[in-house]
Amino acid sequence: MILNDYLMSGNGYKVRLLLSILGQPFEYVERDIMKGETRTPEYLEKINPHGKIPTLVLDDGRTLAESNAILTYLAEGTNFIPRDAYERAEMMSWLFFEQYDHEPNVAVLISWHEIKGLPDNADILEPMKQAGAKRALELMEKRLSGHNWLVGEALSIADISLYAYTHRAELGKISLAPYPGIRAWLDRIAALPGYVPITWTP
User: What is the 3-state secondary structure (H, E, C) of 7-69?
Assistant: First the structure.
């Protein structure tokens, strides 16, 4: 399989991290989103008509986009997806939370401070994003202050998904000091066999 990705993308890192932990071989193709490499006619026609990364090309030529959908596909039949129906639904709830509440705040702040620079109206937007990030992290802390993992008593793709941007939150000027449960959780994930940093490629 081939992973079309951008090295510093948290969404792409989720997929690379899971593939490494699973020991699943894959080919990596860098697509520089800052240079428009996901907007070329060839990419839009053959890889992803939405012009996004990550996009996984399966061995049979089919393509799969959206990072959490890719995680779900790769984790099928493994212990990273709970067998219990309720816990599986909880896992999905965290994946939706990651995309709708966490990423739009945490990831955007990281991007502004590390990659793109602050927007012209940052004096209005940044406090809003910081408040949104705080709400998301407080919700995670509420769970992780009393549990090792986000779902049940085992690691799942919910943890992999939310780890990707949370572990870099301070690059977006988001302090993790108030969240001891999150910090301990980050350490547990970083200690997993097969763990790799965001800069890793196969």
Answer: CCCHHHHHHHHHHHHHCCCCEEEECCHHHCCCCCHHHHHHCCCCCCCCEEECCCCCEEECHHH
- Do 175 and 156 belong to one domain? yes
pLDDT digits (tens, 9 = 90+) for 100-127: 999 999 999 999 998 777 888 888 899 9
Does residue 106 sit in helix, strand or coil? helix
pLDDT of res. 108? 96
Range of the domain at 159: 85-190
Q: What is the pTM of this model?
A: 0.95
pLDDT tens figures, 138-155 = 999 999 999 999 999 999
Domain assignment of residue 177, yes or no: yes
Q: For the chain, give the mean pLDDT.
A: 96
| Residue 187: burial class (beta carbons within 10 Å; 0-12, 13-18, 19+) | exposed
- Sequence-separated (6 or more) residues with CB below 8 Å from residue 75: 18, 22, 81, 156, 157
CB 137 within 8 A of CB 166: yes
CB-based contacts of 186-189 (< 8 A; 24+ apart in sequence): 188/148, 189/155, 189/159, 189/160, 189/163
